[in-house]
Amino acid sequence: MSDITIRKAEGTWVVRAGGAVLGETKNALELSEGSLAPVIYFPRKDVAMPFLDKTDRVTTCPHKGEASYYSIVTKSTTLENAAWSYEDPKADVTKIKDYLAFYPSETLAVERV
């Protein structure tokens, strides 16, 4: 088992893409895995899902399971495979089921407000 820790992320978190707020939550989770930077997961119910299009990309993590990916459609561009979700995560990480994580970039920000 990898060294994975999942805890409630304190405070209010937002995800913005192309200047628009895609999600805001007080119920984010912070997943820490080994020496990797922590990742913030947003409850799916707190994200504007109409702006996300599921893609064909799938990856497998030996510790978390199979990840599905989503592209984000903004006014000016489409951010390919910019979000991911473990829709049927492994038993040790079931807390992240129905949550989404995002790849921060020049056009996508995940931040505590």
From TrEMBL:
Domain annotation DUF427: ranges: 14-104
One Pfam family per UniProt: NTP_transf_9
Top-level taxon of the source organism: Bacteria
Designated name of the protein: DUF427 domain-containing protein
